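Consortium newsletter contribution from the modelling node. Members have asked for a concrete example of what our holo predictions look like. Here is one, prepared for the fe (ii) ion complex that several groups have been discussing at recent meetings.
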Amino acid sequence: MTQTAQQLTPSAQEAICEALNQCVAETTVSTMLSQNFHWNVTGMSFGALHDLFQKIYEDHFVAQDDLAERVKALGGHAEGQLALMLKRSKVAEHDGNASAEVMVETLAKAQDTIAATLAGTAAIAEEHGDLLTQDLAIARGQVHEKFAWLLRAHLG
Ligand SMILES: [Fe+2]
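And here is the predicted structure:
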């Protein structure tokens, strides 16, 4: 049975918000990862990668807000502390000292990780009949898989 935000049980709301906060954390860490690479990338593909990394962090910056505000629409607490995000995120920070190839592969793997977290979130939302969160998570997962392809296409 489908459930709106107001109809979810407290335990369903808690499970969905926990999954969404994981998505927020990984999207936020990946935002900084991508901006870090945008600044520090070098080599013959500088222009293309500098621009692509910017597209990614701009997308992620909007997405983290959409995901966190879905938590609020569900009545939960949006976790907005960087230390907590880094602690729970399966996407790690990077020092920014790497070849363009390593940056592309690192960021592509981050996209895979976030897509998997979002797919898991969609499944949890579906389990509880929360189609509107499910739709958001699916849409975001598709964006991350597209970015993974756009990145890996540079590796030949
Ligand atoms: Fe810039």
